[in-house]
UniProtKB/TrEMBL annotation:
Pfam families per UniProt: NfeD, NfeD1b_N, NfeD_membrane
Annotated ranges, domain NfeD1b N-terminal: 24-172
Membrane topology: Multi-pass membrane protein
UniProt GO cellular component terms: membrane
Name listed for the protein in its UniProt record: Nodulation protein NfeD
Subcellular location: Membrane
Span of domain NfeD-like C-terminal: 379-434
Length: 448
């Protein structure tokens, strides 16, 4: 009996060592809400799920964005196996338009001091004079019902959130907490963990409401990749519009100044980046677009050699496009594991360089060969070197490629047996030749 008690005590001592460490993941979303933003959410949530994290905190600062991407993000949050906390942070940040819907679709909402939330009336875009094109009533009514359903599901204030649309209402953290729109006002991440500890999620996780256990957790930050930062930059509407406008101007300039090729090359790249920045593509679709552009550059280099301009442009767009091709989806940063991607990145760069070299030199040589006028029969003889087998006085015989040909000295001088001659002209079946050294002298004078 005594041994049994000792064994049980030993197991109890070991239990903390085997207990899973508590961890909270923190990620950042900033800028326009696009299909790329969904890829980021998907990656962040999947990373937290794999680690069985106690919670995922996503700091958000967005003026809004695409409605379809916003709905996909909310659906991904609903499917999450870990609690997702949306935190409007840092000071001065805002969760407007699509950002408001995303916050209301989360398991817990927190705001930092000096932030705002709301103003999410749907619009169709902007007119040529810059005025807003209002959405029709049926679209507005749809989003009113949608935002009310989000609030109802989480027990948040339906009346106030409806005013986010009907009155373009924006509220401060204090107002949001007072009206029951958010759950926490926190100064920073640590303050948020302390205040949210012990709270229940506003939406079920894995079918049940979860009491947050956040005290003493390890904080792990999921930093945005260089790709995320680039996409965040070019998805700014102002940047996308400038890229599109400059790209069009560059193409026009290139067409007006043929032969230079720099403007149209830069213009094509800027237009492609602008289209990607407008958010109509996910990472993989954007990658395909850039790969197609890269092939166009490579072919252009082969058809119109530009001393490497199109080759460099093709190589750069090929590498960026290939990297984007393996991005998003699957809940990870890339469609393959990080270990495999390290090798894949080397392969992408190597293949890109080989393709660039092939189109710059190999394919260009093939094109030049096809363009070269075909020469057959007597025409093919011009430029060949032979040997005199019967003195040219000035007529005689020469041997070229093992065949005997009637030949005549171009200048009427005698050329003895054994001397080398070069064919410079044909007259019927007779070749007009000169001494090889005279041919070289003529070529030298011609070059001078």
């Amino acid at each position: 009996m005594k041994k049994l008690l000792i064994f049980i005590a030993f197991l109890l001592l070991l239990t903390p060592a085997f207990a899973q460490a508590k961890v909270v993941y923190v990620a950042q979303i900033k800028g326009q809400i696009t299909s790329y933003t969904y890829d980021q959410f998907d990656r962040y949530i999947s990373e937290a799920e794999r680690a069985n994290a106690n919670a995922l905190i996503i700091t958000i600062d967005t003026p809004g964005g695409r409605g379809d991407a916003m709905q996909n993000i909310i659906q991904r949050i609903n499917d999450s196996k870990v609690p997702v906390i949306i935190y409007v942070y840092p000071h001065g940040a805002t969760a407007a338009s699509a950002g408001t819907y995303i916050a209301l679709g989360s398991h817990l909402i927190a705001m930092s001091q000096g932030t705002s939330m709301g103003a999410c009336r749907p619009i169709l875009g902007y007119s040529q004079n810059g005025s807003i094109i209002a959405a029709p009533d049926k679209v507005v009514n749809f989003y009113v019902a949608y935002i009310r359903s989000l609030a109802h599901a989480s027990g948040r204030n339906e009346t106030v959130v409806e005013k986010f649309i009907t009155e373009d209402l924006s509220i401060t953290p204090e107002e949001a907490l007072k009206y029951g729109v958010i759950e926490v006002i926190a100064y920073d991440i640590n303050d948020l963990l302390e205040k949210a500890d012990g709270m229940k999620t506003k939406l079920p996780v894995n079918g049940k409401y979860v009491t947050l256990d956040l005290k003493g957790t390890e904080i792990r930050y999921l930093e945005p990749t260089l790709k995320d930062q680039l996409i965040s930059y070019i998805t700014d509407p102002s940047i996308s519009y400038i890229l599109l406008t400059l790209g069009i101007w560059a193409l026009i300039l290139g067409f007006l100044s043929p032969g230079w090729h720099v403007p149209e090359t830069a213009g094509a790249i800027m237009i492609a980046l602008a289209i990607i920045g407008l958010g109509y593509f996910g990472y993989r679709s954007a990658g395909i677009l850039l790969l197609i552009l890269a092939i166009v550059f490579f072919i252009a280099e082969a058809l119109t050699p530009t001393f490497g301009l199109f080759t460099v442009a093709g190589l750069v767009t090929f590498i960026i496009g290939s990297i984007l091709m393996f991005s998003g989806g699957g809940g990870v940063d890339y469609l393959v594991s990080s270990d495999v991607y390290e090798n894949l990145r080397i392969i992408i760069i190597t293949v890109g360089i080989l393709l660039a070299l092939f189109f710059a030199f190999g394919m260009a040589a093939v094109v030049r060969a096809h363009r070269k006028k075909a020469q057959t029969g007597k025409e093919e003889m011009i430029g060949l070197v032979g040997e005199v087998v019967e003195p040219l006085v000035p007529n005689g015989l020469v041997k070229i490629r093992g065949e005997l040909w009637k030949a005549e000295s171009k200048y009427g001088d005698d050329i003895n047996v054994g001397e080398k001659v070069k064919v410079v002209k044909t007259e019927g079946l007779k070749l007009i030749v000169v001494r090889l050294k005279e041919s070289r002298l003529e070529e030298k004078k011609g070059g001078e």
